[in-house]
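Your task
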Amino acid sequence: MATVLAFDVYGTLIDTHGVVAELEQRLAGQDRSDLAPEFSRRWRDKQLEYSFRRGLMGAYVDFSHCTREALEFTDRALQTRFSETDKDHLMGVYARLPAFPEASAALDRLAEAGVRCVAFSNGSREAVEGLLAQAGIRERFETVVSVDEVKRFKPDPAVYAHLRYRLESEPGDTWLISSNPFDVIGARHAGLHAAWVRRTPDAPFDPWGIEPDITVSDLDALAERLG
């Protein structure tokens, strides 16, 4: 069976901090534009935290709901006093985030090598389809697999089992590609191979005794290793 690479979307293919420029504009009126990177970081961290908490509670909602709640929390925490119009606009920007610069060419190299590529995300299928399309990389993927189909969030083992079910693949032929250590650990725990895209050179990996099969700096390096 051919190897299949399942790419995490947010933070791996798509730059979640692509919202910083818009945040700078929105905060300029408060003379706080320098707060934009911190706002973006906290927003993303809280988005993931809320998905983890909802997973533990068995209180699943669409991932965009976690994103909106995280935006509301970050606005309160940093006292940025965004209006509802501002928040609606920022959610719209989040739906149009850019792909990382090397993503398109790296995916082309993998396709030329005959590697199957799919997108695998906490986001709903509709949201991910739209996000990848506007970023110009949807056609590089055979399909989109969303956790929404099983109403669980990564790193629940059920979502990795569902990925294999959808792809009709064996664990040894299935690779998760992710910049998120929790996702890599979840996939390895579920018996899949996993590559960690370590986009920040000094980022530590969680000391759980479960390591990625390979670590790469970006998707170009991934294509060199697995293409």
User: Anything to note?
Assistant: The chain has a mean pLDDT of 96.
